[in-house]
UniProtKB/TrEMBL annotation:
Top-level taxonomy: Bacteria, Pseudomonadati, Pseudomonadota, Alphaproteobacteria, Hyphomicrobiales
Keyword annotations from UniProtKB, A to Z: 4Fe-4S, DNA damage, DNA repair, Hydrolase, Iron, Iron-sulfur, Metal-binding
Catalytic activity: Hydrolyzes single-stranded DNA or mismatched double-stranded DNA and polynucleotides, releasing free uracil
Protein name from the UniProt record: Type-4 uracil-DNA glycosylase
Record field: compositional bias (Pro residues): 47-59
Amino acid sequence: MTPERAPTVSQLLAFYLEAGVDCALADAPVNRLADPDLTPVASEAAPPRPVRTAAPPPAARAEPAQAPEAAILSAREAARTAPTLEALRALLEDFDGCALRSTATRLVFSDGNPQARIMFVGEAPGREEDLEGLPFVGRSGKLLDRMIAAIGLDRGSAYIANVIPWRPPGNRTPTPQETQICLPFIQRQIELVNPDVLVTLGNPSTQTLLSTREGIMKTRGRWLDYDTGTRVIRALATFHPAYLLRSPSYKRLAWQDLRAIAKALAPGASSSS
Ligand code: URA
């Protein structure tokens, strides 16, 4: 039998990129099959395995310092105590309960004006955001800028953040635990910005913040209440700009949502629509 030719380096790189791998977590590869935690129970006939004493380098394992339940509790405790947005950002910079922090390049906290009357919340940063440390600066960010401009505003008069402040590796979907760990921080951020209108962008942000299981097709364009605990803020879900880039025919509905938002922000608008 003719042996198969080994793949070239460029074929391997193409394979990894297609599989969503676009960053290295450590300089050296880690043989996870040699991880003692993963070693199956040795059969009686097998010779004893050598005991591995050296711990793997910390960067090689994207594991949080705490178990998820403990991390959720400490996130709630920490976020609650942040008196200002600066303090909240500093807390997040130091928070080691979410494994995403160790794979991301940097924290992506927010952009825009903390005094804005409107706050937009997306899901999680992507590659460009991770490199720049600002939310929505890539392709979907350019479309978000145009959406904001459509209601006569810009980043100087709007505030932008994400539910998850660190990029998930390869832009994978954040796990439910990661979302629950990050939730107290975005909740506190909303409370501190205290906008008149909260806009959730896309399904994950809408379902997480507005506590609904319904999909974006049903939730978009409907005014809902977001209760910070001290105040009820009017909230409206609309399509995520990345979705609009893939499905431009929904821009018509997004435009209707933007008009409803502009109306709610107009001077003299009533507090319910
Ligand atoms: N998508 C998001 O949800 N947030 C960003 O910051 C960028 C893309």
